[in-house]
Predict the structure.
Amino acid sequence: MACPRGASHSFVTMMDRLRAATIVAIFLIFTFLCMPIQWLLLKLGSRRARTFPHWYHRQVANLFGLRIRLVGTPIRDEGVLIVANHTSWADIVIFSAVMPISFVSKAEVARWPLFGTLARLQRTVFVERDRRSATREKRDEIRERLLAGDALVLFPEGTSHDGNHVLPFKSALLGAAEARLDSGAHVRVQPVTAAFTGLHGMPMGRENRPLFAWYGDMEMAPHLWEALLAGPVDVVIQFHEPLSLDLLDRKALAAEAERLVRTGLADALAGRI
């Protein structure tokens, strides 16, 4: 039985701790076996370098007890910029388990032990958001990746939060959606809502969501351990209708994407989807 964050852990049994420790051990062994495979695929320029992380994260999601329910239809077989709310480190596993993708991330993630290496192996675009000139350069790199057919996930809130609300979307990197396909149309932008909705098959209250939401000054390792102790969690991933700069300017597109994601989160947390 899971305890709310900050409550007594007297209900956490030895079996819970043994289960969590076993999951961590399997995750580390499995990850260190998969890393050289992905490195080799990248070196060889294999198309499987896009899809192998998808397979890997599907196994990790099952191992961690992340039970994903997909709502809506993701864009496939063309470059797409996915814009989503950001709640937790688990978002990386969840989105990657749904489809082959890469991420746009803050530059400091590249320096994190293990997770920075995993991000690089998944062809993450790292952005120094405090440098405006660097942001422009990365926007061009994102544009090239989209035109090459990649699906990239951008978290336009700029940070993670408690999972109970959506922060304002920043429009700076959405300029990459100005890229035009061979047809002349702009690359499409697909808003996506991620919502942590259940724990052990029961509706999750807002007091338990911080067991999985990772934000502020939380340290990664203790938070991951607490999440594994809590047990299986249900997640709703809702793909909304795509948007385009063919019809909206950049700031209007950011505002509309934010509205769709915010509405989706409210509906998911209320059990309406």
Summary: The domain at 14-269 is CATH 3.40.1130 (Glycerol-3-phosphate (1)-acyltransferase). Confidence is low (pLDDT under 50) at residues 1-10. The helical segments are 14-44, 48-64, 90-98, 115-121, 132-147, 220-230, 250-269. DSSP finds seven helices and eight strands in the chain.
